[in-house]
Write a structure and sequence with these properties.
Layout (H helix, E strand, L loop, with lengths): L11 H5 L28 E9 L3 E9 L9 E10 L6 H7 L1 E2 L3 E5 L3 H15 L10 E5 L14 H10 L17 E2 L2 E2 L1 E9 L2 E10 L13 H5 L17 E8 L5 H17 L9 E8 L22 H21 L3 E2 L5 E2 L4 H10 L5
Parallel strand pairs: 5-6, 11-12
Antiparallel strand pairs: 1-2, 2-5, 3-4, 3-12, 7-8, 9-10, 10-11, 13-14
Helix pairs in contact: 3-4, 6-7
Length: 366
């Protein structure tokens, strides 16, 4: 039997009831916002469409709106490629203009085109007066181990569903949306999020993690991957692949930062990724984008009055970015469940009991 499942708004609260890393006693630095999610930055909305069909289709779409789906206002932004074996469309215009003019959409590698085109269709339907160009930001990671990636199963209706479902509030994590078929450090990966307070400002991070080798996995400074080892590999699974995945990291803040400062912020996501053990292997597409919800109307015509945080005051924002990135990655893995997919491939979830045992061994269990 073939079936399709879309994550709808009514299911969001159920999805969020799963334990998160802090619930298991994982210690993290910094102070989170109330939701410990990218949506702690006011105005941000996140939507997912999860596509599961039969035994071979495990994929989807995730969307992050900087100012909500009803806004057409641009945001200052910057991007950074730590390792470029991946794709994020629209970045040449971000580099040129300093602005993000669309939501950030994330999917699988071979669905970037349909997601891009579908977003433009959705945008034009909502704003028929729109007559300018549209260069949306669509990023990808490869889900071909668990998903029939060459079957092109992400359709326009799935993209519309993710866009229409975008909401503020709690964000479902794990094997949802674009993260449905992803593998991270040899365990089931997917979507994760976290936030940090930085004085008067908030930094939020959302990741789609699909990177790393199991032996690299480090959590709260503990070599969790080596401690767990291969004991959780399912029978019949053809081993754990090398670092041929990718990770997309979206960093958001309400701090008044300009595009060059946001590029600096995007680069700091690398340090949060490194805390979890990744060395950004040759086959990995590790691409990061950062935007600010401050300075509304900055892209409008005419002379604009802007606010900018001094470079001398950026260190707390940098700290918050690194800390939230690290926790978002761990949350993605903690929130994911064991999955069987394409050609019977099976990827186990990070076992919560073994994670707690490893943290306890190193006196790191909170």
């Amino acid at each position: 039997m073939r079936f399709a499942l879309l994550i709808l708004p009514a299911m969001i609260m159920m999805a969020q009831e799963k334990p998160r890393a802090r619930d298991l006693g994982v210690p993290f630095d910094g102070t989170t916002g109330p939701l410990n999610a990218i949506t702690d930055v006011a105005g941000i909305e996140v939507g997912h469409a999860t596509v599961i069909q039969g035994t071979d289709v495990r994929t989807g779409v995730t969307v992050v709106f900087p100012r909500g789906k009803d806004s057409t206002d641009s945001s200052f932004a910057g991007w950074y490629s730590q390792n470029g074996n991946g794709e994020m469309t629209g970045t040449t215009w971000i580099e040129e203009s300093g602005f993000l003019d669309s939501p950030v959409l994330i999917t699988n590698t071979h669905s970037v085109g349909v997601v891009r085109d579908s977003y433009i269709q959705w945008h034009v339907k909502r704003h028929p007066e729109f007559r300018a160009w549209d260069m949306p930001v669509v990023a990808e990671t490869f889900d071909g181990f668990l998903n029939d990636v060459n079957g092109f199963h992400v359709k326009t209706e799935h993209v519309f569903s993710a866009l229409d479902a975008a909401r503020a509030g709690k964000v479902p994590e794990g094997a949802v949306g674009g993260g449905t078929g992803m593998v991270c450090y040899g365990f089931k990966g997917g979507i994760g999020t976290s936030s940090r307070k930085a004085g008067d400002y908030t930094v939020g991070v959302l990741v789609q993690c699909n990177c790393g080798r199991r032996d690299q996995l480090t959590i709260a400074g503990v070599p969790v991957g080596r401690e767990i080892g291969n004991r959780q590999i399912a029978q019949g699974q053809p081993g754990i692949r090398e670092d041929v995945g990718s990770i997309i990291i979206v960093v958001a803040t309400d701090a008044p930062l300009l595009s060059q400062q946001l590029k600096r912020l995007a680069r700091r996501a690398t340090m949060g990724l490194a805390r979890t053990g990744s060395t950004s292997g040759n086959g990995s597409g590790d691409i990061f984008i950062a935007f600010s919800t401050a300075n509304p109307g900055a892209a409008k015509a005419g002379v604009r009055d802007l606010k900018m945080l001094s470079n001398n005051d950026l260190n707390p924002i940098f700290d918050a970015t690194v800390e939230a990135t690290e926790e978002a990655i761990v949350n993605a893995m903690v929130g994911a469940e064991t999955m069987t997919g394409f050609q019977g491939h099976r990827v186990v979830a990070l076992p919560h009991d073994a994670l707690r045992d490893a943290l306890q061994k190193y006196n790191r269990l909170k």
